[in-house]
Design brief:
Helices cover 37% and strands 15% of the residues. With 340 residues, it is α/β, with parallel strands linked by helices. The protein has 3 domains: 1-50, lambda repressor-like DNA-binding domains (434 Repressor (Amino-terminal Domain)); 58-160 and 298-325, 3-Layer(aba) Sandwich (Rossmann fold); 163-294, Response regulator (Rossmann fold, 3-Layer(aba) Sandwich). β7 (244-247), α9 and β8 form a beta-alpha-beta unit. It is elongated and about 80 Å long. InterPro entries: HTH_LacI (IPR000843), LacI/GalR-like_sensor (IPR046335), Lambda_DNA-bd_dom_sf (IPR010982), Peripla_BP_I (IPR028082). This is Transcriptional regulator, LacI family. Pfam families: LacI, Peripla_BP_3. Keywords: DNA-binding, Isomerase, Transcription, Transcription regulation.
Length: 340
């Protein structure tokens, strides 16, 4: 018995992405006339018949792959606005977002991404979404955009904040406030974005002639809700503690605050603290946290706009641009100018 033609077969025969083929075969606009005719001719030649499940999958689906963490994406203070930005664009264009969670150590599976109705993929963040997952997503032939993640050497369209520039600017801000001994509380090495923040800090310090000794960048000893806590205690136990601590994220800065509070050390009276991301909590802690603002909702909007442009153009493999959105320092009350 001859095997029925699939959406992938049609897309390959017409030399377009599966997303573009799906748009054409479901009567959607946004595809050039010549491309539309090529897809329809391929479908006729192959005898393609849409799956009866397709009627249950309207509007078109975009799968968002995200690492499973203790916090759901809808309540995570960093990912939530990114998803809101995506949802705004998707809903306005007749698409639906479907979240798919990746467990630690889970191998990638292509089958559930190549069903009729799935027109594109978004990889949100890094962590357990390693290179194997990204290569598997590329192998589907579906248009793909990565958000807040980047893998050197892989040609994938990406949308990221300027982590390096933001950390560099924040370190310069602390230097301008008279701080010279600045500690840095790092994050997990599996997150490429956090490594860029460390690099920005290091460059600013080196340019100031203050290359930090290893003791000012303690090894990670705290995880989950405790992040930043144990590393701060290590910094405080130094013979010469830092006058300022740069936490790699706002959530890490909360752990820094807690350790300082337990030791009876005031912020910013005795030690200044800064973070990165500008999540809502950064504005409500006491004192309000000086931080670097990441345009999370804009990242989500730009990512979906790029993905839809790739889906509708049919030439998605030709656009491997890395879109870097600007970040900026937000001064608040957690930094003291030394000598004032």
């Amino acid at each position: 018995m001859k095997k029925s033609a699939t959406l992938r077969d049609v897309a390959e025969a017409a030399n377009v992405s599966m997303g573009t083929a799906s748009l054409v075969l479901n009567g959607k606009r946004g595809v050039a006339a010549a491309t539309r005719e090529r897809v329809l001719e391929a479908a006729r030649r192959l005898g393609y018949r849409a799956s009866p499940r397709r009627s249950l999958r309207t509007p078109h689906d975009i799968v968002v792959l995200v690492e499973r963490t203790p916090l759901s994406p809808s309540s995570d203070p960093f990912n939530k606005p990114i998803l809101q930005g995506m949802e705004t664009v998707a809903r306005g264009r007749g698409y639906r977002l479907i979240l798919e969670f990746v467990e630690q150590g889970e191998p990638p599976s292509l089958d559930r991404w190549t069903q009729d109705g799935v027109t594109g993929l978004v990889i949100l963040g890094g962590g357990d979404l390693d290179e194997d997952w990204i290569r598997a997503a590329l192998a589907t032939g579906l248009p793909l955009v990565m958000v807040d993640h980047y893998v050197p050497g892989l040609e994938v369209p990406t949308v990221v904040p300027d982590n390096f520039g933001g950390a560099y600017a924040m370190t310069k801000h602390l230097l301008e406030q008279g701080h010279r001994r600045i500690g840095f509380v790092r994050g997990p090495s599996k997150y490429w974005t956090l490594g860029e923040r460390l690099a920005g800090y290091l460059l600013a310090m080196q340019q100031a002639g203050l290359a930090p000794p290893p003791e000012l960048i303690p090894p990670r000893v705290s995880h989950g809700e405790e992040k930043g806590y144990g590393e701060t205690l290590m910094l405080l136990d130094l013979e010469e503690p830092p006058t300022a601590i740069f936490a790699v994220s706002d959530k890490t800065a909360i752990g820094v605050y807690r350790a300082l509070n337990e030791r009876g050390i005031s912020v910013p009276g005795q030690i200044s603290v800064v973070g990165f991301d500008d999540i809502e909590l950064a504005r409500t802690v006491s004192p309000p946290l000086t931080t670097v603002r990441v345009p999370c909702e804009e990242m989500g909007r730009v990512a979906l706009e790029r993905l839809l442009a790739l889906i509708e153009s049919g030439d998605w493999r030709e656009d491997n641009m890395r879109w870097t959105l600007p970040t900026r320092v937000i001064p608040r009350s957690s930094v003291r100018r030394l000598g004032s």
